[in-house]
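re: that chain from earlier
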Amino acid sequence: MSAGRKELGSAGQSLWGGLGGLTPYAVAALRAVGNQTSFPLPSFSLGFCLVLVLSAALGVLGSILLESHTRFAAWFHGGSFPIMLNFLFGESLHQASHPPPH
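^ sequence. v structure.
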């Protein structure tokens, strides 16, 4: 760190990690509506809200576990941690259902 900047604390890691965890959903939503802002807002189901909360919580967890020291690192770790876990669990399930031939 440079002399004029202090490290990001737990509150900053939580905030930026949570934002990072929600960023993929925001990007997907903008792509779905073609980057337009004049459309009626849909109603959100309880399941979708639960997925958003879980993704934000995993983003917070990722930014803290990976010891993010800057806002960008916390945002990046928060966005990539849920994606990484999804890949690892999906690959593990795939390997478990398709054992290698002997």
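Residues 10-35+44-95 form one domain.
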